[in-house]
Amino acid sequence: MYQNLIGLVEAYNTQVAIPKKLEPINKEIVKPDDSSVIEFPCRVTIIGNQTYGKFPLAGVDDQAIMEYQYFLPLIANYLPSELASKGDFKKFLQDKGSSLIYEISDFMMMTLPHPRVAYYQSSNYFNIQKAVTTYANEVINALGFFPVRISLEVLKSMELFS
Amino acid sequence: MSSSKFFFKHSFRDINRRKFHFCLSFCSVFIVVWSALVINTLVEKGPVIFLKMAEGIQGQYDGIIYPTKQFMGLEDYENVEGIFVNYTRVQKITDKKYNLAPRKQFCDSHVGADQNEPLRNSMCLMLMDTELERSINLGSRYPFKPMKEGECFINEDQAMLMKVELGD
Questions:
Q1: Does the interface predicted TM-score (ipTM) exceed 0.95?
Q2: What does the domain layout of chain A look like in residue ranges?
Q3: Helix, strand, coil percentages for chain B (3-state, nearest 5)
Q4: Which of A35, A142, A157, B41 has its CA 20 to 30 A from that of B25?
Q5: DSSP labels for B124-149?
Q6: pLDDT tens-digit profile of B43-72?
Q7: Nearest to A154 by CA among A115, A100, A122, A110
Q8: Do A63 and B151 touch (CB under 8 A)?
């Protein structure tokens, strides 16, 4: 959570504090120790018994899920004490958090265009590999020069099965 | 016409005379044709079966795009390098051309039924946009509606360990 809090403080400083000439928050107040741990409650509304294709089978026993857009407005009420006292920062998370979180995603999931089965239909693995990696390269190219990487886990498994 | 009649007449007469021989021949031909059809179908549909098996292990998605140097699998991935992907910007520059959905994940999250409970389970908390993922066919077997603020999904084993039920 430490890196996320640093990112949020930076976003607050550039989007709110500097334009409105408020006092920017010093990033140093967020420390990489237990003081940046956030504790918050949640109500269990779904109890699952499988992965539903959302995550790997290996993680089925210890995976909890929450909805993406509501996370920052929720944790705004449970910030570490140093940040909780910054009223403008808290308000910033409550008001802008649901859109801001899309700007600080940890990773992105990619699916092939419909019908994705067509990419895997060849009985020759090298044809499958060529089709999938060509598309993946196209996506990475489109994202620019920033060093993003892509992991093609299903393709890796297909190599074992084929 | 007359030759067909002649052929059928002799065929039926032959079947009546040698019933056992006919059954044996019929079964042999049937088994060979049936096997050929099964093998043909398996070869044709094999990759799709393998895809379903791979999806069962890895999940129903084709790629994970990450900005960090380290990635050892999604099940315990946490972005600790402080480099994030701006999904809003990505959608803008690619003109929403690709099927992408953002996620966040916090592993080593300690979860307990009660704040003061001494035994707390270590889990990965994943954040996902249910509607967006449904629109790109990611995990189409997930039947639940999007959760609201402050609501969460947990596995039934964890629920049993923490002795929590729906609504707790």
A1: no
A2: 2-103, 116-161
A3: 45, 20, 35
A4: B41
A5: EEEEE-HHHHHHTTSSTT--PPPP-T
A6: 777 788 888 888 888 888 888 888 877 777
A7: A110
A8: no
